[in-house]
Amino acid sequence: MNLTSFSRFAGCGAKLGPGLLDEALCGLSQREYPDLIADFRRSEDAGVLRLNDEQALIHTIDFFPPIVDDPLLYGRIAAANALSDVYAMGGKPCTAVAVVGFPVGALDIAVLRRMMEGGLAALEEADCPLVGGHSIDDKELKFGYAVTGIVHPGRVWLNNALAGGESIILTKPIGTGLVTTAARGGLASAEALAAACAGMGTLNRKASEILQRHEVHACTDVTGFGLLGHACEMAADTKFNVRILTDAVPFLPAVRDYAAMGLVPEGTYRNKSFRMRFIVNTKHCGDDDLNLLFDPQTSGGLLAAVAAKQADAVIAEMHEAGVPAALVGATVDGAGMVELA
Q1: pLDDT value at position 332?
Q2: Which of 150, 196, 188 is nearest to 300 (CA)?
Q3: Are the CB atoms for 86 and 92 separated by under 8 Å?
Q4: Looking at CB atoms within 10 Å, which of 2, 167, 252, 300 has the fewest?
Q5: pLDDT per residue over 141-169, tens digit each?
Q6: What residues make up the domain containing 145?
Q7: Which of 12, 128, 219, 232 is catalytic?
Q8: Active site residue 197
């Protein structure tokens, strides 16, 4: 399977946002459901429905074309990416259903078997059984999962539930969009590609479980909208700004070089056009830095707003568990914007 042939997009896996579904649903509504905690009217990582006083159901779906050559790794990344939405809500994955668009006749079924093998390995690591799936004959290969999870209804992590006085923690370095774009052109270094693949294939399970032991006010995972795009979701409709310390943001190897070379995914420009009006102090960054911070991610880390007094303990626990977390910002009084510092 050749990445330059099958992967038109770098940094896939975006949530419902400035895209087709968002436009199609604009102005539409559904009746109120008393037990519905989160639905399409919020820019959340998943839908959440209260089942009883102790349990709420999390439901999400994500799928995308290949971004790596290896079918086994592609399957693993697709599973890790879909599972991430449940972890970002503070939940535990329970079941997964595979979603497949496969070019019958163009690819051997062995390719799909390897994809399923990689996905199963990630699902088993998450203690999440595969219960079935649905496939169609498609000209372009696509793969992913619909995942359900369980969370306590009083402990659901929403994107923009800031209370003030938080530290902002990021659990994976960013830059997968730039690396995969460079790889499509044969320009990515072996080190950068290995680091990007390792990060995309790593579950957010450990990070989520550590955060669940602390005071989390808001959380999301960093995917197609990039770090700044998801920070904007976190700040939206609140009385606070999310201040991002640009020098503290961890990046994958060589991504600054790729940004300077102009190896910028198309999704970066879409992210900037949609979100730049919510960013203040942009003069603090040059164009290359903004392209890095808006780089669309696949299976990125969690972006969590935790009580500032607990931030050091969270970072220490994550490092001990092998999670490369970093303190990248804080919340300050404001008007629902993202500040660059």
Answers
A1: 97
A2: 196
A3: yes
A4: 2
A5: 999 999 999 999 999 999 999 999 999 99
A6: 3-155
A7: 12
A8: no
